[in-house]
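In response to reviewer comment 3 from the previous cycle, which asked for concrete evidence that the modeling workflow produces usable outputs, we include below a single protein chain processed end to end. The sequence was submitted unchanged, and the resulting structure tokens are shown without manual editing.
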Amino acid sequence: QLGDDERATAGYQEALAIYSGLIGKQGERDADGANADDVIAVARIHNELGKLRRDWRGSDDAMEHFRTAESMLESLAKQTPTVAGRFELARNYYLQVQRQSRRPRGGRGDRSERGDGDNQGDSNERSERGDQEDRNDRGDRSDRGDRNDREASEEMLYDAAHLVEELRDESPNEPEFQHLLGLVYMQGASLYRRSDPELSEAYWEYAVSILEELDASHRKNPEYAYAVCWALSSGWPGDTNVSEYDWQLYAKRLEQARRRASLLVEAHPNVPQYRALYGMINHRLGSVLGRLDRHDEAVVHYREALGASTALVECFPDEGRRPW
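The workflow returned the following structure tokens.
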């Protein structure tokens, strides 16, 4: 959620200091893997610190934390594989791909509202689910740092999907696995949006189906409703040659996302993350309706976005950055 990142960072750093006294050097374990849970906890803290640094400090700082977590978790997977460790490793891969495609909050970027990963290059064609069968034969990942961002992002997304799909097959009723799988395929939709629109759309549809099924079966968890709203609002068609049909389709998705986000804010008025999403959706909807020459409707949604932004600034006067 939006809040005090400096205090959150200090809290995570304090937690790291406590765990360092339990496991000694980062990643060090007894031969029998008795303290694997501590290693996973430290890696999870590094993942959370990476998220904070990615969103605020910048991607270079974030990468240090993500790579530390990746090294610890991959080593653990080879020696003492656990469900929690495999899940956190899949999450780490997903977060690293997000790191490649997100600019720090409050900074300037050249992608406007196109969404994560729109500036990526070309790619080979893949089937909707990817080549799942051959992912076990990929071998060591130590050369990832020598590859370009695109190749590393593709490989990490495939590995994340493979890990979490294995976990889901083992425990089909575990909502965390479904949630992460939906997010991974949403990131895949973003990655291929410009280079392979058909594959991107297939990934998007699959991700939305996963997240909507999850939300329908866990109505009491607002994070799953949030994920659906975010998924429906993703996929900004930022190119100038987008057809009117595409804009109309995106407007319908945004309107559906707006209705759901409105209910989320109504049920949880004190959660700024949800209000920020509601504002972002209205802002995008206003932009799309403007492109469709529906200017009166666009103004309504711009005003809704402004209201959400104003409320966030009032709640967090020290943040001083764009809420979405």
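The chain has eleven helices and no strands. We consider this sufficient to address the reviewer's concern, and the full set will be provided in the supplementary archive.
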